[in-house]
Amino acid sequence: MTAPTPHQPSHQPSFAELFTPKLVTILREGYGLSHLRADAIAGLTVAIVALPLSMAIAIASGASPAQGLYTAIFGGFLVSALGGSRFQIGGPAGAFIVLVAATVQAHGMDGLILATLLSGLMLAAIGLLQLGTYIKFMPYPVTVGFTAGIAVIIFASQIKDLLGLTLAGPEPGPLLEKLPVLWSGLPTADPASVGLALATVGVITGLKALRPHWPGMLIAVAGSAAITAAFGLNVETIGTKFGGIPSGLPMPTLPAISLEKIQAVLPSAISFALLGSIESLLSAVVADGMTGRRHRSNCELVGQGVANVASSLFGGICVTGTIARTATNVRAGAHGPVAGMLHAVFLLVFILVAAPLASFIPLASLAGVLAVVSWNMVEKPAFASLLRGSRGDAAVLLTTFLLTIFTGLTEAIVIGFALGSVLFIHRMSTITAIESQTPFVAEDSADGAIVARKPYDQAAADPEVVIYRISGVFFFGAAASIGSVLDRISDTHRVLIVDFSAVPFLDSTAANTIEGLAHKAARRGVKVILTGTSHTLRQELFNHGLKPPLVGYERTIEVGLHKLRRGDAGPNAGGGVVQQDAV
Questions:
Q1: Any idea what the CATH number is for the domain that residue 555 is in?
Q2: Could you tell me the pTM of the whole model?
Q3: Is pLDDT at 533 greater than 60 in this prediction?
Q4: Is 530 helix (H, G, I), strand (E, B) or coil?
């Protein structure tokens, strides 16, 4: 496909094209038995990874393991069927553990399910309003910082089960309150739980190094369950804490809905929608980078929204795109969304056939799984490189990281994004420059290097003419500094030429700065000529009243100087406004 030419406008996709699920796309391309075979193998591989993770994440979030599986089954199926990514795998995610646990503690399970339902409606609305593109503008130090902060909180939440501690009271949520309680419970540590947790971590990490294609998490969890059952270990298991997993699916039911309850859980729902959109789109971008494909971000958010609504109706928790499982899906050779749909079907088969076996799974083993997950969540090379980089990036990273741990995820994202935006504005303002009176003569070159040179124009040295060249993005961050330079025009000057040929964009603040300059110059009897303006820049300047006779427009500085010598340049001479096709 060739790039559009100036005479061939680019195709603008229709609403239907923007929101066509990738499942429809691959079916249109042609879907055969070889594709189904590849998707079935990938789906089974992902299901093996998702099985222990879904239960572990749900338990860490304050929900039951069955709710984690329902989330992966219903939510995962719809994310793949309706989403805008070929390879996205949906389900419960470790990034949500902190928010979900806090919501359960504050509003109960009914409040969590209602918040999940509302967040699904929000995600669908964000997608339909085509706001998905803007969500991807999250600064990189913010994503690295809050991911690392979440990893720390997840690990801290698993210390009790990793060590098999018996606490005198409920375990606090905030880290600073949690640590003293865990410390006081250290004498109650259970050697069997510690051994199972260490064995789980050892098996997962060992198989990843020696047999990377083996399902390390499932082997570790199944092995620990077998040891627990064979030796009758007195440790807490899914059976002793939750009574096992139901061998069937629940009927869909609406959560209790009232205006008061909606108002209470609305902040949690907004947090779910914000984090879910960021997490899912990051996962889709990772899949694109691995495959060379392109996802439809707004369609993906609509699919995520429908999946969260469905998950809440069946008693599940928050659904989002999961980076690790999506990457596993790609590496396993998936062809398209059918792999994600089959992964949900395989999890359903597990519930229907092998649910009684889950009762023997020790919580210490699932805590070991999450300990490995939290370690892998930390982007260690990225964290280190950002710390070694600029002080601004390091400040954004550390601020987001510490706020995530000690304050809250929502506050961390908002403040981190704000700091990242301020840092970007500062950097953009520093590369916007203004210079004055550069001669129109090239640098001297060595003998033998014959270079075409423009003739020196004596008007450039005219003390009554001042020339300013602005380079870079001229916006509110740079308007004050540039405005202060432009204001220093002496009354002895009769003409001011401002060259915009190196300005790709200006905003209303910059246009207002030039307008103020033009009026001030007019009061002093100084003519203002603007050169090198593109059509877009002129439109913005026209909108702020910068039209002849207040200012004149010329193609280049040379043209403006030439007309000055003839006496027909400047605002009073009509300005010579350049048309679009002349630029």
A1: 3.30.750.24
A2: 0.75
A3: yes
A4: strand
